[in-house]
Amino acid sequence: MYLMTTQSSLLNNNTLAFIALSNEYCQALESARESERIPFVENMLRLLPRIYISATDLQLNQFLAEDAYLEGRLDEDFYDSVRRSVENLLGPDDTYLEVFEEDMKYSDTPIAASVSEGLADIFQVMYNLLDAIRDMPEEVVLSALVAVKDDFESYWSRVLCNVLRALNHIRYTSTTADE
């Protein structure tokens, strides 16, 4: 993807870095089927904190628009294909106990979550962003970034942090046979 960065550009280094990380993340998940377990987990452990920081650093307040909306462009079959690839790669380690689920307060039983589903949910956001901004004017790109930032604050930042915790557990409790 090529975006111009001129002196008058509305896009700054933070937004360009976020877009680049989104692209790198999508490529990593799309190629999960060909990956090995531990290198994939290590790559996610490098990417996810950078994505979190980059999303947090997006300074888009001056571009806030009430109608900022990112259309869902990822079809369900592709989403499920990505999710299944990660699920197959992680095997039984795909499931972890979710402790920050709102319903947990009212439950006597643990609530299970899925690393693959969390990663696929983040993939969906990134994929939709990249697809929406391809060859679009800066104003459209900024509007899409505002929508992603709003969604980050209300939903996928929590998913990212929870998945990061589960991936950290996989990485540092894996057997030597995995390595």
TrEMBL record:
<protein>
    <recommendedName>
        <fullName>DUF5063 domain-containing protein</fullName>
    </recommendedName>
</protein>
<dbReference type="InterPro" id="IPR038312">
    <property type="entry name" value="DUF5063_sf"/>
</dbReference>
<dbReference type="InterPro" id="IPR032025">
    <property type="entry name" value="DUF5063"/>
</dbReference>
<dbReference type="Pfam" id="PF16702">
    <property type="entry name" value="DUF5063"/>
</dbReference>
